[in-house]
Each structure stands twice: as structure tokens, then as C-alpha cells.
Design goal:
The chain is α/β, with parallel strands linked by helices. The protein is about 50% helix and about 10% strand. The strands form two sheets. It has a four-stranded parallel sheet with strand order 2-1-3-4, sandwiched between helices. Strands 6-5-7-8 form a four-stranded parallel sheet, with helices on both faces. α7 crosses α9. It is globular, with a radius of gyration of 17 Å.
């Protein structure tokens, strides 16, 4: 299968290892990769801020470039929700409405693609650590994908998953929310970090690098003995 990989701008700029890990995994499974380097932002910041006209300007090149893709895999629940759930809403009653619906039908968040589309749960990975999982809001609430990452982690050798009490609680990032309401954002993140620390885990794992950036920043400032890692980085370990 030819997989078109959509790497969100913050992953490309700040967490390139996540994208490289996804490429290694998909190539290991025998798939070819198309990575459209000219695409960056999906338009979500403008969309979430209410600037839908501006969001369409950013999103239209994405629609055009991905129109002929066989399948699109997205390295983020947040941007995955944008393409799959919100593009049809953003382009409703426009000439691009059908293109948005067509794209939505072939978009997958990375862990969902492995488990639902490919039927793969065991990648032969090994990660000898205790971890706890953070459910990003978009992956959980918009895409409804709570189980795929857990199915994958369950097959990782020597990994112990310890669920935290606040697994489904927002980390407080929310993109522009963290910039507009920093004190509320920090308070929400501290609840998340405290819950993760209670498990005794060595790592906080998520499918969203944006959430992990928020969480890692808080634990670094508090000098807490826990680290963050994207699930793709674990699955690429052998």
C-alpha cells in the first residue's frame, strides 16, 4: 500500500523522531511512503480560534495535495481530527465539500491505522519500562480511539502499562488555549502530572506530541522523575 504521511507542523519542527519512527514502522510492514513536504499546517489554529476563512486558505492546499492519496496517516490525534472530522464541517456548502468528505474517509490517526486498517498489533517492539498513557482530547473525544494505542502497547515486550486515574483528563494545552489562559492551562497540566506520578511510571506515553510538550514542560520545571515519549517511538524500538 502507498501511504501518504501527514506530519503536523509541530512534529516536523520539534519532534522529528516521531515522524521518522512512523516511517520505519510502516516501511518495516512493507508499505511505501509518500511524504508531501510542501504541506505543513492543517489550519487547526485558525479554525479553533474562529477564523474559518483563514483556516480554509491553509486547508485548501492540503485538500488539493491529498486528493489522489490512497490512504492518509496522521501522526497526531489532534490534526487527525482536523482532517477527518472538521474538514467536512469547514468546507460545508463550498465547492470543496465533496473533496473534504472524500479525504475524511481515507484519513487515519497512526495507531488506528495500524490496528483497524492493517490489523496489526504486534510490531515486535521491546521497551523495558513502566509507562502510563495519556488520552489526548481529540483522539479520545473526536476520533473515539481509546483502545488502539493500548492494544499496541499490550504487545510490547517487557512494557508494563499502569493506567492513571486522570488518563482522560485534558492536559491543559489545547493549542491557543494555553496561550490565552496560561494559569488555567498550567493548573490542568499539574493535575495530569500528579496523576501520572502516582502510578510510579517512568514514562508518560501519548499519541499526541502537543500534549507531551505541555506535560514535559511542567515536569521539567517541577524536576519530577518522569519522562514523556510518543507511542511511535516505543513501537519502533526493537
Amino acid at each position: 500500500m502507498k501511504v501518504t504521511l501527514f506530519i503536523p507542523c509541530f512534529v516536523d519542527a520539534c519532534f522529528p523522531k516521531v515522524g521518522l519512527s512512523i516511517v520505519r514502522i510502516l516501511e518495516k510492514l512493507g508499505h511505501s511512503i509518500d511524504f508531501p513536504e510542501e504541506l505543513a499546517c492543517c489550519g487547526q489554529p485558525a479554525f479553533n480560534s474562529g477564523y474559518w476563512d483563514e483556516a480554509r486558505v491553509v486547508a485548501e492546499p492540503v485538500l488539493k495535495r491529498l486528493r489522489t492519496a490512497e490512504v492518509v496517516v496522521i501522526a497526531s490525534g489532534s490534526c487527525g481530527a482536523m482532517l477527518k472530522v472538521f474538514y467536512p464541517e469547514l468546507f460545508e456548502k463550498t465547492p470543496q465539500a465533496q473533496a473534504a468528505r472524500d479525504l475524511s474517509a481515507k484519513c487515519y490517526e497512526f495507531t488506528d491505522f495500524l490496528t483497524a486498517k492493517l490489523g496489526v498489533t504486534d510490531l515486535g517492539a521491546r521497551f523495558p519500562h513502566k509507562v502510563t498513557f495519556h488520552d489526548g482530547c481529540h483522539g479520545l473525544r473526536e476520533l473515539g480511539k481509546k483502545q488502539p494505542p493500548r492494544e499496541l502497547l499490550a504487545k510490547v515486550r517487557d512494557l508494563e502499562l499502569i493506567e492513571m486515574g486522570e488518563a482522560e483528563t485534558c492536559c491543559g494545552f489545547g493549542g491557543t488555549f494555553a496561550a490565552k489562559f496560561p494559569m488555567i492551562s498550567t493548573a490542568m497540566g499539574e493535575v495530569k502530572c500528579a496523576s501520572a506520578l502516582e502510578t510510579g511510571a517512568e514514562y508518560i506515553v501519548s499519541s499526541d506530541s502537543s500534549c507531551l510538550m505541555q506535560i514535559q514542560g511542567l515536569v521539567d520545571r517541577q524536576r519530577k522523575p518522569i519522562r514523556t515519549i510518543h507511542i511511535a517511538e516505543i513501537l519502533a524500538e526493537s
